[in-house]
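Researcher: Here's my situation. A collaborator sent me these components and asked whether they could plausibly form a single complex. I don't have experimental data yet, so a predicted model of the whole assembly would be a useful starting point for our discussion.
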Amino acid sequence: MNIALAQLNYHIGNFEYNTNKIIEHIKLAKAKGADLIVFAELAICGYPPRDFLEFDEFIDLCEDAANQIAGHCIGIACILGLPVKNKVLAGKDLYNAAYFIEDGVVKSVIKKALLPNYDVFDEYRYFEPAREFECIDFMGVKIAVTICEDLWNINNNPLYVSSPMEELIKQQPKLMINIAASPFSYLHDEERVLVLSDNAKQYALPLLYVNQVGAQTEIIFDGGSLAFDNKGNLIDEMPYFKEAFRIYKFDGNIIEGYEPISHQAVPDVEQIYEGLVLGIKDYFVKSGFSKAVLGLSGGIDSALVCALACRALGPENVMAVLMPSKYSSDHSIQDALDLVNNIGCMHEIIPIGDAADAFDRMLAPAFEGLPFNLAEENIQARCRGVVVMAMSNKFGYILLNTSNKSECAVGYGTLYGDMCGAIGVIGDVYKTQVYQLSQYINKDGIVIPENSIVKPPSAELRPGQKDSDSLPDYDTLDKILFQYIELKQSSSAIIAQGYDEGLVRRIIKMVNNAEFKRYQTPPILRVSPKAFGMGRRMPLVGKYLS
Amino acid sequence: MNIALAQLNYHIGNFEYNTNKIIEHIKLAKAKGADLIVFAELAICGYPPRDFLEFDEFIDLCEDAANQIAGHCIGIACILGLPVKNKVLAGKDLYNAAYFIEDGVVKSVIKKALLPNYDVFDEYRYFEPAREFECIDFMGVKIAVTICEDLWNINNNPLYVSSPMEELIKQQPKLMINIAASPFSYLHDEERVLVLSDNAKQYALPLLYVNQVGAQTEIIFDGGSLAFDNKGNLIDEMPYFKEAFRIYKFDGNIIEGYEPISHQAVPDVEQIYEGLVLGIKDYFVKSGFSKAVLGLSGGIDSALVCALACRALGPENVMAVLMPSKYSSDHSIQDALDLVNNIGCMHEIIPIGDAADAFDRMLAPAFEGLPFNLAEENIQARCRGVVVMAMSNKFGYILLNTSNKSECAVGYGTLYGDMCGAIGVIGDVYKTQVYQLSQYINKDGIVIPENSIVKPPSAELRPGQKDSDSLPDYDTLDKILFQYIELKQSSSAIIAQGYDEGLVRRIIKMVNNAEFKRYQTPPILRVSPKAFGMGRRMPLVGKYLS
């Protein structure tokens, strides 16, 4: 039999768009001689639909779309992810499921058993886990179909107490198919290949795996659908960060015509770059906007975001606003203009002095006798926020936030100032990775001015200010932050690695005390295994290491 | 035996504070002749500890605190909620549990089976559900101890496929004890009494129920611990919104000395008032601040928030900032000053004209030839945001957000302008409820000026602006919003109730399109069954009814 895998970019809740795309690929697969086409987890509604799932009308629309699609499954069968109602009056109202459709009819319903409920995942919020398992029967072959997490229970301390494959294997399937919505992180592709390989090996079955691709606000799906032989060898790998479609010939025992290959390991920096570009592009396409605005300071963070946005949207759709103040260094404007010239985006220069001075005058009676401090620094950052938001409101540009992960972590940013924006482009990219990405972008010629890369980082909110006045060097800071945030190491464990005790405690305290700021930041494109936002949920008034 | 219930206000992650409070109440109970004292769910660390639970160090600190407390349980036993490690190498790493401590030793560990994972709850993110159940044995009596949700599975369509009491009852207990962290909503107290009563009746056992009290950022626990006889009659009800402590004499069959009573139904408006006052107070106490600042417009929303803050913090700790613009009506300043005079809080008058004019001049080249529109309206709101945040930064005042639920819902507010703040005081209070609360506050004499209550609502961002220019009357709007937000009704179901189809579709579209704004709003004190924030999780770029 010929099995097509459709690695597609869906749009949450856009039933017309998703349904048309699915039907188009059914027609394509049929024209190319496929007997079965496989779509990803929750393909009909996109992933994650979140609390839309709590509306009956939304579930009905999923079912309507499935019925429409079923009508096209004549002469070709289809496996299609969607939420389905739990008809038993006990347990949650829904299953995360897939329809196996043949001859225009739903022949069986595959239900997901292992419901991820960590990091960005909330599946047990909506879905009842499956407790009964049955292989599908197609062209005389038994196929064990599972949904994403169902295969992620292979290790010495599994997260779930049972595994669907342990039941399905008893029915002697000849092939495994897994449909997924498995988000990108720059550490996830290797893990995914390993886990799926372990499954193919353990059950001695070939395995076809289809993933979603595309970004849904902060979550980026990277595609990279996979095929394995029954020894666990990777035999095919579909492209990352774009839609793809392939047909495999399965003879009832093996997938024909493929040899073992190695996973194409791509450097982290390149993966992050591709992920961020896709993340920006899909945020705009899916929210119906085309033009972006950002504040361009001459520093490396905003330069990088500008370069990423120009790549994602085209430089003609990016407006860079230069907003110097009396504390801006001489070279800042020039560095920003150099970038604009290198890259060809639109720009405006709007000095903020008049507004900052007006606030100083307005507040003078209330602030009488009190020295310049953080309050005045923040006024400048907030004046810039007002200017870029005014540009956004006047022209319909979407404001890109340029805060990096290191500063988000320690709270080194002004709420309602430089923390404004509709989407945080590099909020999951540590400062040291910001440098790596900038060098990567410059690999074939200078885009980001050398001076933006080499000068000491500064917020330029008071004379001579440097990030290093209040923060350790970013190499050290980022390593400690990675231990605490990504690896969830306790302070004592981090100190035991040889870092200065006082420094570790001070940094963790800064991270915890900045929770109230991060609560109000824009959604952040997720590229690491632990991004700020929906995947990291901390108490605000809690008193722990704070 | 004498059983003490301790209804206490914990602080998340503040182990020293929680442990001292628990030990103090053990001593008190012992002095008063109690044989057993019962504390709430996760009493040791406070509820909800959220992702703190993912740090080993945090769990170790819980265990350390429990050991310290156990040392005080000599001559008195104790039931104490805490997270405990799952020692089996399968399933999640933790249980939501309780220690039964007797003679200074942990005699048994009660584990929660039913893990709420809806609305504000994320328990399956952290905890493995219990699958085995055993009554505790104390002074020769078997007691069925359960944790909160464990008793919430009594109806015709239960959320969980099994119930711990169905197992525990087989062991013939004589008493049920349930320890809880059950959040307040103005509709929840009646439901709680009913569900617990149904349990007492169904299992024909007396039931003692102890809840937490106090606010943890947005979640407010209202206390109201309860006692039932074995026919399901309510026989005692502890106070709401404050700490309380009572001792019950249980003779092995009945709780002695009590007769059936009715649940003390308190009007919604009074419950909301008490909840909000506690919410403000605990936000400040638990984050270590004492003074608040807010923008006072002369309108009813900020007047109400000011009155609530003065009640919670004392008027001497509240700074009201009046920020008139050229579009402010003549009476606005007077209405605001009347409130300040009535209530005795601090105030400053800081007109925003200079800053707004400065922005207009700065943006004139970029905006040349374009008419006044939303961009200029938002500049004014954002100038006010800059001013109140400057006051906050300079004096360490915490900014209270004054947006009501109706405007949060439809996106009628300026991001980084009037949507600024550390905590949203009335973001879960519809405009019609804002009026009710204001009347309630004025019941014994005018606090909120009559004019703020009776004048037509206006944002005053352009000449002659009224809320009714772009919104339906609040009576209609709030009813439609309640159907959509609290009751999750689909548009067709709401229209079927007789509301205008175009209006319903327009309002739902406004709600869905404002999701990106709500993503960046402050945490909102939750008083309804469905507040904006962590309990309502919607996609941002999703395209559904938008």
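Model: Some features of this prediction you could bring to your collaborator: The first strand of chain A starts at residue 2 and ends at 7. Residues 44 and 210 of chain A are 14 Å apart (CA to CA).
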